[in-house]
């Protein structure tokens, strides 16, 4: 079979599988977020930590819970990494420097999973399992919990309660992430992903050379790495490593896993607000951007101008032969659009426009479909902006799902859309202005600039993928990117929860013929245009100096 | 106060026209508004002003034609924004002047011990306090707002309403309010003053139309927040661009960076935002409606439910004769003749309508009373509920079914089942039956038939209500009629619901119920007993003919006292929001073209590939940037008429309205600047120093 038909078939299988899961998974999440029933294990847990599981929180309390939990997570992870040489299963890895440990702790807590270290040589099994893997679960759960609070802001009326963070966190981890991860860890292991407690094994290769082969509990971590849109690889090569992602099938499975929750959450949203059409509109916008990006990246990766590229028939540098262009492009588009950041090929080696698109995907704010939870809340905030402008154009005070968008709501939505671009641009501007940091670039000219832009875009949007090339394990980059991750994660969370609180307080406005309908093709087109224009206008100058300058010769 | 406004400044200036004289008059104001303390209230334009200062400094330090051209046009951008606001305010000021002329210093004749005696003293109008009583006689000006407590007078209110026909003001009832500054034309009234000096109706009107009392509305605040955040994003994008540009080997001059910021931030809507708000209030004033706050105008656009009084709003003021229904064996012409004859002494509007119907429907000329010799006229009274005439031994009577039946049976006659059936049929259909009977020379009275009186729905109301329904607004008819009658009229008029036998308490309860469900309610009212409901409603429009209590309670006053205007008020409210939304969309969409002009101009030297982005084929980097800035400034002036006039509003559902406005202002906003910048570039490239 030719490469192109195979690519199409994979894409169709993927879309079919996602469509199949959309409804049951979305309904399951809605169920666990609204159910009044606690599992026995959960009750025991609440009792142990002293949480009143039946008391809902006001938004500031919910926010404080999120922040406190995340701060503790950073501290714990930081301690674990710094102390790992004295603990079990350390495999004799050297002690990590403070700035890198900070960067890593923040990175996994913020669901970014930016890795300035190389997994197999810097992390022992204990940190991988008790530190990083745990954060893979809970950081994903935090994202879903925050969007749950926002959706409750729409679905609840005249209340100051937006849910209980501890209950949300527990239920999402135990009833959603854990069972699905176990299931797919088994499937991955069955398909050749390693799962053992071996350290490095020295083997003699056929040609007589010596090779050191790392083992590890990979499959168990691989499933949640993708399912939770985390992306932090067990090995440095991430999903390009044959032990993490051995075959074309596991590759497709990994893409499926990283998309499945973000694409199911709009169903959860539709169900919780009592109007599935609202969820359909959101999923349509997400799908539109995802499909367009996947097609365009694949298209650009097949365009080849250099003689080496022409000989290979495509831009194969940095791609795995066993995946090919189509599967690599599909993975690249999906991972950058979901805040996952796992890679099965190296975006630095992509064609200028193909690589540029992966940056642009992240610049969209990780909303199409975005990270677990964070994707939906990002999209809903942009929907609020779209409804505001469009609502004015139909001559009413804009309202979304019956909630009026007044000064308070617009303040939080505006701050949200302001935050990430500011972090990205200020970070990139500083890095590029400092002569010492500029030296970290592998390439010069526009491509070198793209590497820096990519790094800050990835960190601020909590994606975590790297353009490679750039050397980021310096005190400056570790610190700066760490800050970008913290602010890029938690400032938006503050604004989203504040928005949730202000929406929940309102009395709903009944819909009438004069109300702007927020479903249907017109709204889908409008929301897509707002996403494109808001992002495009903000980042156009930076993109012009990077990928566009490089691509237009 | 602008005194240069021409004497002919019309009370109702034609909306949207840019009078060059008005523009000229507004210019000094526009320059005065450059004061940073004023500008800072508008974050977008404040950034423009700061940018202008920065480029001025840069141009002085390093002069070039380009630097000075950009500097000049940036200052113009700021001035144009102020000009838009000043023009909008200028129109209000012209109206305020007219009002001020009405507020001449008057001398009040205060009654010192009213009602006990008639002792009076002369005090200046400004010395009057709440609760004082004054007497006003023909030819004198009412010294302050108040209620007539004694007497009746005809009053010329043209100073306020622009309507020259005098109106009657009398003590008691719902026609008791008089406004300071109006003139009594006849008779003598005693007025109890209800306003403090300086807080009179006319003072408030002046403040309103001048915009002095203008506060930002909730929606305007929300939009301002969005615009401010966009401004910050673009500021950040441009400030951080400099190190990136330096890395690319193309550091930019301050002038170019400021130009890029100004081109990107939403200056179009930022410049016109306050003008749109002022013009919205102004549009209401043009229609003789005074909104006490901008918030009320905005709320009008959001209204879900309109409560409309039946009488005067949905139907013509009174019931009218629609049909003559003869009793069996009676010729319809004979019935019509008898009905007309018996109604000649009936001065009620219903009675007059019978005379008219007999004339138009049956060719019977209305006879003057004097034509009939020896006629004894029986006028209609509330007690007898009958009118008629006794002439040449013949008695004709017409009146309420029960009264006439009593008259007939009292003289030995009987009504007959057929007539009773007719009467019941009309009642069931919501009409009022009047029975006509005659008695010849002391014989047995005979019933001739029935006159069908019904409410006449104003022409065009059905269509208006259908429009409102498409806009998503529910109409509820309020009437004192019984449910049967109310239903019939409600169906004929096409309202969505009705409230029959309505008391003020019922009305209040209905408003609260609707608001409980999250709906916004608008209503009109004039009586004192309407005041609580007017205050409770989100939009309460008081009629100017109404009581002071009603006018105080509502948040709008209709000087024409035309309750149907509520529908126009809703449309103006919507138009205000649509104009803001449309210009915001236009403004943001404009940025795309500006990028294509400025980015290649900035970086094509360092990255030659970027010249492909110069899709407009602009002549040179300097001409491209200048053209973008010139376009940015001119588009503000170009859109001032639209901002003042408002975007055309069509009553239709939200989807088609949105599709239409996105088509015009979204796609238009994308395309127009490409053309505009190119055209300007074609001219600018010939300017020495810019090519």
TrEMBL record, chain A:
Query: Where does it reside?
Result: Cell membrane
GO CC annotations on file: plasma membrane
Q: Which InterPro entries match?
A: KdpA
According to the record, the signal peptide region is none
- Membrane-crossing residue ranges in chain numbering: 61-81, 126-151, 172-194, 249-269, 281-300, 376-394, 415-434, 480-501, 522-544
Where does the protein principally reside? membrane
Q: Which molecular function GO terms apply here?
A: P-type potassium transmembrane transporter activity; potassium ion binding
Swiss-Prot/TrEMBL keywords: Cell membrane, Ion transport, Membrane, Potassium, Potassium transport, Transmembrane, Transmembrane helix, Transport
PANTHER family, A to Z: POTASSIUM-TRANSPORTING ATPASE A CHAIN, POTASSIUM-TRANSPORTING ATPASE POTASSIUM-BINDING SUBUNIT
Instruction: Describe its assembly.
Output: The system is composed of three essential subunits: KdpA, KdpB and KdpC.
Task: Please give the family membership noted in the entry.
Answer: Belongs to the KdpA family.
This chain's function reads: Part of the high-affinity ATP-driven potassium transport (or Kdp) system, which catalyzes the hydrolysis of ATP coupled with the electrogenic transport of potassium into the cytoplasm. This subunit binds the extracellular potassium ions and delivers the ions to the membrane domain of KdpB through an intramembrane tunnel.
For this entry, the protein name equals: Potassium-transporting ATPase potassium-binding subunit
- This chain's source organism reads Kitasatospora phosalacinea
Phylogenetic lineage: Bacteria, Bacillati, Actinomycetota, Actinomycetes, Kitasatosporales
From TrEMBL, chain B:
Known catalytic reactions: K(+)(out) + ATP + H2O = K(+)(in) + ADP + phosphate + H(+)
- List the Pfam families: E1-E2_ATPase (PF00122), Hydrolase (PF00702)
Molecular function terms in GO for this entry? ATP binding; ATP hydrolysis activity; magnesium ion binding; P-type potassium transmembrane transporter activity
* Keyword annotations: ATP-binding, Cell membrane, Ion transport, Magnesium, Membrane, Metal-binding, Nucleotide-binding, Phosphoprotein, Potassium, Potassium transport, Translocase, Transmembrane, Transmembrane helix, Transport
In the UniProt record, the signal sequence range is none
Q: Does the keyword Chloroplast apply?
A: no
Membrane-spanning residues where? 42-60, 66-84, 221-242, 254-278, 592-610, 622-644, 664-687
Q: What is its EC number?
A: 7.2.2.6
Q: Which residues of this UniProt protein bind ATP?
A: 346, 350, 380-387, 398
Q: Which domain of life is it from?
A: Bacteria
UniProt-listed InterPro entries:
ATPase_P-typ_cyto_dom_N, ATPase_P-typ_P_site, ATPase_P-typ_TM_dom_sf, ATPase_P-typ_transduc_dom_A_sf, ATPase_P-type_domA, HAD-like_sf, HAD_sf, P-type_ATPase_bsu_IA
GO cellular component term of the entry, any: plasma membrane
Q: Does the keyword Cytoplasm apply?
A: no
Domain P-type ATPase A, chain residue ranges per copy: 117-210
Could you say which enzyme class this protein belongs to? translocase
Tell me where it mainly resides.
Answer: membrane
* Active-site residue list: 309
Any idea where this protein resides?
A: Cell membrane
The topology of this chain with respect to the membrane is: Multi-pass membrane protein
| Positions annotated to bind Mg(2+) | 526, 530
Q: How does it assemble?
A: The system is composed of three essential subunits: KdpA, KdpB and KdpC.
Functional description taken from the UniProt entry: Part of the high-affinity ATP-driven potassium transport (or Kdp) system, which catalyzes the hydrolysis of ATP coupled with the electrogenic transport of potassium into the cytoplasm. This subunit is responsible for energy coupling to the transport system and for the release of the potassium ions to the cytoplasm.
Tell me the protein family, please: Belongs to the cation transport ATPase (P-type) (TC 3.A.3) family. Type IA subfamily.
What's the protein called, per UniProt?
A: Potassium-transporting ATPase ATP-binding subunit
Query: Which lineage?
Result: Bacteria, Bacillati, Actinomycetota, Actinomycetes, Kitasatosporales
């Amino acid at each position: 079979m030719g490469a192109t038909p195979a690519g199409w078939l994979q894409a169709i299988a993927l879309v079919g599988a996602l469509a199949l899961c959309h409804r049951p998974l979305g309904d399951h999440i809605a169920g666990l977020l609204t159910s009044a029933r606690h599992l026995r294990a959960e009750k025991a847990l609440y009792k142990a930590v002293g949480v009143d599981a039946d008391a809902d929180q006001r938004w500031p309390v919910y926010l404080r819970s999120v922040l406190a939990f995340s701060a503790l997570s950073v501290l714990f992870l930081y301690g674990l990494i710094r102390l790992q040489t004295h603990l079990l299963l350390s495999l004799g890895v050297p002690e990590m420097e403070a700035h890198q440990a900070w960067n890593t702790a923040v990175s996994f807590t913020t669901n970014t999973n930016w890795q300035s270290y190389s997994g197999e040589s810097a992390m022992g099994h204990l940190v991988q399992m008790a530190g990083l893997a745990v954060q893979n679960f809970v950081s994903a759960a935090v994202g879903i919990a925050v969007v749950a609070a926002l959706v409750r802001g729409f679905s609840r009326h005249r209340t100051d309660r937006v849910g209980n963070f501890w209950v949300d966190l527990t239920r999402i981890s135990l009833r959603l992430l854990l069972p699905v991860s176990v299931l797919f860890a088994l499937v991955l292991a069955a398909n050749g992903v390693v799962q053992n407690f071996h350290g490095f094994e020295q083997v003699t290769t056929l040609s007589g050379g010596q090779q050191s082969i790392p083992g590890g509990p990979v499959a168990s971590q691989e499933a949640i790495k993708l399912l939770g849109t985390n992306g932090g690889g067990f090995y440095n090569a991430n999903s390009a490593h044959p032990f993490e992602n051995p075959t074309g099938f596991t590759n497709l499975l990994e893409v499926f896993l990283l998309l499945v929750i973000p694409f199911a959450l709009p169903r959860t949203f539709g169900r919780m607000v009592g109007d599935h059409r609202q969820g359909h509109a959101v999923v349509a916008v997400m799908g539109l951007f995802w499909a367009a990006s996947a097609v365009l990246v694949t298209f650009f990766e097949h365009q080849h101008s250099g003689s080496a590229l022409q000989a290979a028939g495509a831009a194969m540098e940095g791609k795995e032969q066993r995946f090919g262009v189509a599967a690599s492009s599909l993975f690249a588009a999906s991972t950058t659009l979901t805040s996952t950041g796992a890679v099965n090929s190296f975006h630095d080696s992509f064609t200028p426009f193909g690589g540029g698109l992966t940056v642009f995907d992240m610049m969209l704010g990780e909303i199409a479909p975005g990270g677990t939870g964070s994707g939906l809340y990002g999209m809903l905030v942009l929907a609020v902006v779209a409804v505001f402008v469009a609502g004015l154009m139909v001559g009413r005070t804009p309202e979304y799902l019956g909630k009026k968008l007044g000064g308070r709501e617009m303040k939080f939505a505006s701050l949200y859309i302001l935050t990430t671009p500011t972090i990205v641009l200020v970070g990139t501007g500083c890095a590029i202005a400092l002569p010492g940091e500029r030296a970290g670039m592998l390439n010069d000219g526009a491509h070198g600039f793209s590497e820096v832009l990519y790094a800050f875009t990835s960190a601020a949007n909590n994606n975590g993928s790297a353009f490679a090339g750039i050397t980021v394990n310096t005190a400056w980059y570790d610190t700066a990117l760490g800050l970008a991750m913290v602010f890029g994660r938690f400032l938006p969370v503050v604004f989203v929860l504040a928005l949730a609180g202000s929406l929940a307080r309102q009395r709903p406005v009944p819909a009438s013929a004069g109300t702007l309908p927020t479903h249907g093709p017109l709204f889908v087109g409008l929301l897509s245009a707002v996403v494109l224009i808001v992002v495009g206008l903000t980042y156009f100058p930076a993109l012009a100096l990077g990928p566009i300058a490089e691509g237009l010769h | 106060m602008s005194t240069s406004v021409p004497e002919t400044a019309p009370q109702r200036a034609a909306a949207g026209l840019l009078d060059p004289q008005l523009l000229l008059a507004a210019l000094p104001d526009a320059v005065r508004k450059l004061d940073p303390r004023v500008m800072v209230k508008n974050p977008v334009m404040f950034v423009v002003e700061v940018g202008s200062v920065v480029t001025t400094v840069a141009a002085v330090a390093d002069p070039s034609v380009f630097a000075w051209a950009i500097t000049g046009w940036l200052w113009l951008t700021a001035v144009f924004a102020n000009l838009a606001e000043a023009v909008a305010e200028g129109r209000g000021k012209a109206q305020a002047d007219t009002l001020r002329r009405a507020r001449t210093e008057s001398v009040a004749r205060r009654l010192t011990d009213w009602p006990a005696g008639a002792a009076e003293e002369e005090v200046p109008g400004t010395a009057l306090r709440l609760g004082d009583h004054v007497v006003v006689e023909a030819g004198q000006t009412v010294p302050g707002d108040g209620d007539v407590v004694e007497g009746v007078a005809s009053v010329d209110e043209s100073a306020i309403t622009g309507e020259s026909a005098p109106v009657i003001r009398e003590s008691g009832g719902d026609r008791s309010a008089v406004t300071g500054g109006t003139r009594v034309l006849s008779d003598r009234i005693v007025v109890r003053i209800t306003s403090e000096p300086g807080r009179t109706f006319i003072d408030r009107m002046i403040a309103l139309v001048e915009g002095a009392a203008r506060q930002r509305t909730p929606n305007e605040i929300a939009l301002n927040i969005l615009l401010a955040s966009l401004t910050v994003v673009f500021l950040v994008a441009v400030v951080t661009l400099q190190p990136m540009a330096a890395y690319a080997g193309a550091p930019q001059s301050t002038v170019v960076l400021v130009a890029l910021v100004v081109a990107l931030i939403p200056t179009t809507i930022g410049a016109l935002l306050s003008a749109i708000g002022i013009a919205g209030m102004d549009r209401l004033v043009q229609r003789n409606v005074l909104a006490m706050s901008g918030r009320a105008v905005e709320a009008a656009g959001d209204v879900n439910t309109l409560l409309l009084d039946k009488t005067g709003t949905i139907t013509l003021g009174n019931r009218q004769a629609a049909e003559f229904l003869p009793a069996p064996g009676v010729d319809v012409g004979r019935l019509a003749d008898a009905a007309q004859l018996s109604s000649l002494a009936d001065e009620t509007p219903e009675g007059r309508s019978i005379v008219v119907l007999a004339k138009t429907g049956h060719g019977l000329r209305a006879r003057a009373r004097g034509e009939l010799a020896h006629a004894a006229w029986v006028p209609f009274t509330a007690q007898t509920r009958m009118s008629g005439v006794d002439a040449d031994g013949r008695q004709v009577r017409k009146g309420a079914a029960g009264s006439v039946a009593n008259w007939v049976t009292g003289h030995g006659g009987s009504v007959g089942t057929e007539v009773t059936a007719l009467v019941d049929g009309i009642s069931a259909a919501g009409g009022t039956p009047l029975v006509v009977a005659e008695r010849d020379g002391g014989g047995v009275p005979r019933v001739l038939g029935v006159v069908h009186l019904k409410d006449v729905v104003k022409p065009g109301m059905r269509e208006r209500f259908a429009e409102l329904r498409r806009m998503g607004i529910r109409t509820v008819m309020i009437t004192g009629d019984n449910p049967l009658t109310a239903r019939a009229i409600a169906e004929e008029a096409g309202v969505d619901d009705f409230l029959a036998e309505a008391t003020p308490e019922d009305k209040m309860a209905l408003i609260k119920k609707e608001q409980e469900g999250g709906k916004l309610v608008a209503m009109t009212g004039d009586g004192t007993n309407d005041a609580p409901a007017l205050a409770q409603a989100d939009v309460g429009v008081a009629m100017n003919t109404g009581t002071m209590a009603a006018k105080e309670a509502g948040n709008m006053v209709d000087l024409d006292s035309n309750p149907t205007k509520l529908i126009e008020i809703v449309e103006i409210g919507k138009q205000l929001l649509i104009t803001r939304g449309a210009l915001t969309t236009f403004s943001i969409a404009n940025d795309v073209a500006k990028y294509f002009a400025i980015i290649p101009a900035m970086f094509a030297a360092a990255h030659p590939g970027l010249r492909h982005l110069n899709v407009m084929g602009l002549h040179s980097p300097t001409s491209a940037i200048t053209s973008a800035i010139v376009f940015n400034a001119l588009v503000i002036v170009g859109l001032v008429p639209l901002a003042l006039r408002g975007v055309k509003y069509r009553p239709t559902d939200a989807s088609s309205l949105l599709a239409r406005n996105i088509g015009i202002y979204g796609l238009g906003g994308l395309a127009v600047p490409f053309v505009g910048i190119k055209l300007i570039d074609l001219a600018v490239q010939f300017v020495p120093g810019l090519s």
